[in-house]
Amino acid sequence: MSTLKALLHALGGDGGAYRRSLGPALRGPAQWTMLFTKKSLIEDGFTGFRPIDELESMRIPQGPGIFVILRPADFEPIFLSKSTAGTFKKKDPSLKREVLESEWIPDASVLYIGKASAGSQGNRGLRKQIQEFLDYGRGRPTVVWDARLIWQLRDALDLIIAWKELPASEVNGAEAAYHVGFVAAHGRLPFANLVQARAKK
Q1: What gap in Å lies between CA 119 and CA 116, rounded to an integer?
Q2: Do residues 14 and 8 make contact, with C-beta atoms less than 8 angstroms apart?
Q3: pLDDT tens-digit map of 36-69
Q4: For the chain, does the N or the C end have fewer beta carbons within 10 angstroms?
Q5: Banded model confidence at residue 90, pLDDT cuts 50, 70, 90
Q6: Calpha distance 154→150 (Å, rounded)
Q7: How far apart are the first and last CA of the chain?
Q8: Residue 198: inside a domain, yes or no?
């Protein structure tokens, strides 16, 4: 059984049991606790692992799936006073330094877990979603609001992106399950995830 399937199984099959902090009854068997390191992500089927500054969009698969942002082993957070991300609907994406410091998890490699759905027309997916995420960091007003904390890191371009293709029907449940698994491992959501995903029934 894969880590993702085990997480879904521990949540009742569809990733539908959530809380920002989990009790032992919701965590599932201890052997299925995912460590959320590069090694464990590779074992779970993630590929890519490219620094943002070196990422070639044509190498990103077009299908739906999950993508993660990781920090390199020697990465130290230096927070900018103003985000490089675009302003969406006149909202400033910048947060105060003390908020950023409180969200940072020193022992976590993964900084963000996001999804790339197929979209209502079936023409979205990982390549389009990740490209929008990168464009947002360059100041374009695209809708990737949940990940905005990434772009208040001075060395954001050194961060690493990895992805995992999934059938469109599994993406929502997978995102929710990975969020729950991360909370089980670290006690809270990744640095740049401000809202816990919930699988749509």
Answers
A1: 8
A2: yes
A3: 999 999 999 999 999 999 999 899 999 999 999 9
A4: C
A5: confident
A6: 9
A7: 23
A8: no
Q: Domain of 181?
A: 29-186
Number of domains within the chain: 1
Residue 172 lies in a domain: yes
Please, which pLDDT band fits residue 27 given cuts at 50, 70 and 90? very low
Residue 184 in tokens: 């089980």
What pTM did the predictor assign? 0.82
Q: Each residue of 119-150: pLDDT tens digit?
A: 777 778 999 999 998 988 887 776 666 788 99
Residue range 150-162, pLDDT digits in tens: 999 999 999 999 9
**What are the backbone angles phi and psi of residue 161, rounded to the nearest 5°?**
-110, 135
Within 10 angstroms of residue 56's Cβ, the number of other Cβ atoms is 7
CA distance 188 to 37: 16
Per DSSP, the residues of 152-190 read GBTTGGG-EEEEEE--GGGHHHHHHHHHHHHHHHHSS--
Query: Amino acid identity, residue 157?
Result: L
Q: 194 lies in a domain? A: no
Instruction: Decide: 134 and 28 in contact? Cβ < 8 Å.
Output: no
Residue 14 located in a structural domain: no
